[in-house]
Specification:
Layout (H helix, E strand, L loop, with lengths): L1 H18 L4 E11 L2 E10 L18 E5 L4 H7 L9 E6 L28 E6 L4 E8 L11 E11 L3 E5 L4 E3 L2 E4 L3 H6 L9 E8 L2 E8 L15 E2 L2 E2 L8 E4 L2 E3 L8 E9 L2 E12 L3 E5 L3 E4 L8 E8 L6 E9 L2 E5 L2 E5 L3 E2 L5 E9 L10 E7 L8 E9 L7 H39 L1
Parallel strand pairs: 1-4, 2-3, 3-7, 8-18, 20-28
Antiparallel strand pairs: 1-2, 4-5, 5-6, 6-7, 7-10, 9-16, 10-15, 11-12, 11-17, 13-16, 14-15, 17-18, 19-21, 21-26, 22-23, 22-27, 24-26, 25-26, 27-28
Length: 449
């Protein structure tokens, strides 16, 4: 049993290591180089390490090799969920300057317009993008001296804004839930400057950008009783701190709920969390979709005489979204050339028909070529490809019957039997009625004699 226990322990350790996500996130430090140009330098976020000092990175400047301390654990929790076989996330670092919120509705967060001296010093904003999560993390490098030569820089994650739904695909007419969570842990100097225990006031802002236009969707400052702009499109946000621990760290929720999503609500959603003089923002992409319904007429059979063309086939592709990306193919299955081939004939598409819910419909037409006896039993199929459908698409089909080659089917045989049975019963009934009438007339005739 000991070897088995050891094997299970090793397997468990390997599973934990695989699911723990990357220990280092490679980044680019992006700065303004003047003249409308940007300068980029390699950087890295060290999230976990083994015993001892961090592994050396001679390819990085020490101030851009950041050993991150995450008191709230939000950044670490997000990275642990990252699949080991997924491409590495995209990460950028930039300089950040603490400033009061510029929006009028958020001015209650910062009664004093000057930034406290406790926030002086260098700040960095890390933006990490991936299909799994999207986050922004406000980092404060530590100023403690290190032994020469310095190999890395320690930094604390002060404010982390995170979403686990960076790409949301919502069915047309259904509700959308755009995930947003955030965590805050003030640095030592901030905590010393603030005498009030408990989480600070915060502001939540959701904006939508689409086709070059943007507008405020929802704004909230819980507990400040400020005059807020009216929410748009029925949007509701769960804006609150999750706990009220006196000294932090604190986590909060800013998830947005949109009822019965329509196509006009597609676009980029910007979620911003405002703290006094600090901000964090993430972007989410929302797209609306609806798979098409497909019907083919005439169905289920189409008739034609040898040498004649079958009647026109109509494939109705109804109630789908988006309108782009739709393709219709006509196939002939089981024909004389083999089990599968492209159907010959003249084909065309109708114009789009728009519906009140934002979905669209169109019809595809095919006028097949004249058929021969070899086409008997073949099937015409209308195959539709659309971004909302699987790779092979979706199809509907009808069976071709060539006149003069079809024997009676089982249904026809049953129908003929039932017809004959009813006819025989009818004849017997008429004979019984006639016999009854003749019998009733005989006694009357005898009395008359």
């Amino acid at each position: 049993m000991k070897p088995l226990s050891l094997l299970l322990a090793v397997a468990s350790a390997l599973g934990t290591a695989v699911s723990a996500g990357p220990a280092v996130i490679e980044c680019w430090m992006v700065e303004d180089a003047g003249g409308g140009r940007l300068a980029k330098k390699p950087a890295a976020l060290l999230l976990r390490q083994g015993p001892g000092t961090p592994p050396p990175r001679p390819d990085l400047e020490p101030e851009l090799y950041l050993k991150v301390h995450d008191p709230a654990g939000t950044l670490q929790a997000a990275v642990r969920r990252y699949p080991s076989d997924a491409p590495p996330p995209h990460c950028e670092l930039s300089r950040f300057i603490p400033l009061p919120a510029s929006a009028r509705w958020a001015r209650g967060l910062t009664p004093g317009r000057s930034c406290p001296r406790a926030l002086d010093g260098a700040w960095l904003m890390a933006s990490v993008l991936s299909p799994i999560f999207s986050l922004s993390c406000l980092l404060r490098p530590q100023s403690e001296p290190q032994p020469e030569p310095a190999l890395f820089t320690s930094a604390t994650a002060v404010l982390t804004v995170l979403t686990y739904s960076p790409i949301a695909q919502i069915q047309l007419g259904q509700d959308a839930l755009l995930d947003l969570r955030f965590a805050y842990m003030p640095s030592i100097s901030e905590a010393a400057a603030s005498l009030a225990p408990g989480p600070p006031p915060f502001g939540l802002e959701w904006r939508r950008q689409h086709l070059g236009k943007g507008h405020l969707l929802l704004a909230a400052t819980p507990g400040l009783h400020e005059q807020m702009p009216a929410a748009q499109d029925g949007a509701v946000a769960f804006a609150a701190w999750d706990d009220d621990d006196p000294w932090g760290p604190w986590t909060g929720n800013g998830t947005l709920w949109l009822p019965a999503v329509q196509p006009f609500q597609e676009g980029t959603y910007l979620a911003t969390v405002h703290l006094p003089y600090l901000q964090g923002q993430v972007a989410l992409e929302l797209s609306v979709q609806k798979p098409p319904k497909i019907s083919l007429t005439p169905a289920p059979l189409v008739w034609a005489a040898p040498g004649e063309a079958p009647p026109e086939l109509l494939c109705l592709v109804s109630r789908f979204y988006p309108a782009k990306g739709l393709e219709v193919e006509w196939e002939l299955r089981g024909g004389p050339e083999g089990s599968f081939q492209k159907a010959e004939g003249q084909s065309w598409l109708s114009a789009l028909r728009h519906h009140s819910d934002g979905s669209v419909s169109l019809s595809a037409h095919l006028q097949p070529i004249p058929v021969t006896a070899k086409h008997h039993g073949a099937r015409y199929a209308c195959r539709v490809h659309h971004p909302t459908l699987p790779t092979l698409g979706r199809s509907a089909e009808v069976t071709l019957e060539v006149a003069g080659l079809s024997g009676p089917s089982l249904e026809d045989s049953v129908g003929l039997f039932l017809s004959a049975f009813l006819l025989l019963g009818l004849i017997k009934a008429l004979g019984w009625v006639a016999a009854s009438r003749s019998t009733s007339k005989d006694p009357k005739e005898k009395k008359a004699q």
